[in-house]
Amino acid sequence: MTSAGAVSDKVLNRVLLLLAPAITIVVATEFIVVGLLPLVSQEMHLPLAKAGQLVGWWAFSAAVAGPFVTLVVSRQSPHLTLIATLILFAIGNAIIAVTTSFDVMLLIRIIQGAMLPAFVSVGASVVTRLAPPAERGKGLARANIGFVLGVLLALPAGVALAQGGDWRLSFVVLAVASLPMAALIAIFFPAIPQGEAPSIPSQIGLLRRSTFLANLALSVLLFAAMFAAYTYLGAWMEGALGLSVWSVTLTLFLFGVAGLVGNVVAARIADGAPLRATAIAILMLVASINLAALVQGSIFLAAIPLALWGISHTASVTLSQVRVTLAGNEAPAFAMTMNISAANLGIAIGAFGGGWLIDQEGVGAIGLAPIGFAVFAIPLTVFIGRNVARRATPTPASGSAHRWSPP
């Protein structure tokens, strides 16, 4: 006779197996553009900064509209939300692949950006409902592998697909991949009872909690530090290491492989001390970026710092998702979408700050901006930890409520 726990584990594993590739497709749609901007700019006769709006407006839409979309879909079936979003992305990517209008492309990117937080957060809410309370962080980290793959592999995949000069092929691939994924979810995603979703006022109530807001601020600083360097990683490999385009593509893929190690490590510690682990990941990230920046012309000397960079980069993404979702565990879907909004805001700030410093000092200064963001991020982790410790009490109920805080 099969136990209820074994059945629950089986259902959770099926959910995670379906969510990982689905989230990869959706997240890759955001980041694949980064490696394609020069080709888009050239074909559509646009300044590079104008083409860059395809990245900036997506991030802005995710940051501003994403939370409102999540509040709306939180009352709907997760099954329906996941399928509808994948179909919407398939249609949008197909249109981008054939349109000659930049304004149409921009509108589609804005719509897709608004849907991204809802898609990821709905998946996260299903995981938190199915996972045992003591393993919710681990479950979220496993679900986050799709987010990680989308972030780390989109850039090299886009560069590889566009080697013939056709940037539209990337969007054809994404459009085609979305449809069978939607069909698989329609067929195999378990029929999970809707349950009673948190009320909209209770979800918004998270934004009145200083500790939750501080966690969001930490995510902004963390992603700013990450993407102040990561946005320009390909350009740095070409400029500082003298790699060819194909060598850059291969190195970026290996960077992503190292990132998977970071996700595994983060999954193991996510339920224990995500805040303390975040502080360690920030320090490791900044150190590895600047060690790599010291290397000129030798990929062999840069290999270890790059591997550590990939590990800490991915661990930071995973820990951020877990940390904020557990901090807002009364409304995990809304907490997740607010973290994605914060992450996109941090990406925009980091890309601008890192780009400005590189314009001033050259691509060798790729590690300076992350230092600046880390200077503010580390004290914030201390503030959050002290605030959580101050609110904690020795009673069993309180210990359970704050079980995720750093020891």
UniProtKB/TrEMBL annotation:
Keywords: Cell membrane, Membrane, Transmembrane, Transmembrane helix. The chain crosses the membrane at residues 12-34, 54-73, 80-100, 106-131, 143-163, 169-192, 212-233, 245-266, 273-293, 299-319, 331-358, 364-384. Coiled coil: none annotated. The keyword Membrane applies. InterPro entries: MFS, MFS_dom, MFS_Efflux_Transporters, MFS_trans_sf. SUPFAM superfamilies: MFS general substrate transporter. It is found in: Cell membrane. Residues 15-389 form the Major facilitator superfamily (MFS) profile domain. Pfam families: MFS_1. The keyword Transmembrane helix applies. One of its GO terms (molecular function) is transmembrane transporter activity. PROSITE patterns: MFS. GO terms for cellular component: plasma membrane. It is a multi-pass membrane protein. It comes from the Bacteria. This is MFS transporter. It comes from Glacieibacterium frigidum. The lineage of its organism: Bacteria, Pseudomonadati, Pseudomonadota, Alphaproteobacteria, Sphingomonadales.
